[in-house]
Amino acid sequence: MKKIEELNVKIFADGADKEGILEMYAKTFIKGFTTNPTLMRKAGISDYRAFAKEILQAISDRPISFEVFSDEFQDMERQALEISSWGGNVYVKIPVTNTRGQPCYELVRKLTKSGVKVNVTALMTLDQVRDVVAVLDPETRSYVSVFAGRIADTGRDPVPLMAAAVEILKTRPKAELIWASPRELLNIFQADTLGCHVITVTNDTLKKLVLIGRDLNDYSLETVKMFFEDAKGAGFEL
User: Fold this and answer.
1) Is the whole-model pTM more than 0.90?
2) SS3 category, 177
């Protein structure tokens, strides 16, 4: 099994807690950062602009993605241009559709043609991947985020889809595929094997990295001891 430092896939920390973000920034194997409005709301963020700029004061040398939150494409463009202006390491997350299911493709075409680095997010089908890749400017760096974890939540195996997406992105060498919303550490190694460029991982999952390569006999014994101690601590009797 490879060590984290030996993986080709880049690990991005996904979160909105400033302390957690800075904790991950101190780790050299974390190559970038992503966040979204849902994570920011859960973290109690109320001033979007102030939070983003505070994070960017600390992190200017690794890519970081901030998402637009308008539902109208004209206003999405306005927000995207402002967010992009915050730093050279900033990517603007654009949802693949608005809430009415209207695709973002023309907006992505316009933004990337003007040099705005985008992270097109919430994709779950190969048709979406093909359509997004077709409108990306080949000279502008970008990310395409496929929510493999949510695909898995529906009972579908995301691996074949992600493998096909890797092939599709070869037509845009400056675009990188993100395995988004992973559910377990195994997904990091799956993404690496497939040649996926990036995987986003939450801090809670990243804390499990100490388990990588753990001797399974030792882990089994530790689990048995945990059950025993919890039963003892609960005072169970039969």
Assistant:
1) yes
2) strand
Contact 130, 152 (CB under 8 A): no
The alpha carbon of 170 is separated from its chain's Cα centroid by a whole number of angstroms, namely: 20
* Measured CA distances, 87 to 62, 90, 94, 143 (Å): 11, 5, 17, 17
User: What are the catalytic residues?
Assistant: 93
Per-residue model confidence as pLDDT tens digits over 55-84: 999 999 999 999 999 999 999 999 999 999
Q: What angle do CA 81, 86, 88 make, to 5 degrees?
A: 95
Q: How far apart are CA 135 and CA 116, in angstroms?
A: 13
115's CB contacts (< 8 A; 6+ apart) are: 137, 140
Q: How does pLDDT run across 107-128, given as a tens digit for each residue?
A: 999 999 999 999 999 999 999 9
State the pLDDT confidence band at 4, using cuts at 50, 70 and 90.
confident
Write down the CATH number for the domain with range 4-211: 3.20.20.70
Every domain of the chain and the residues it spans: 4-211
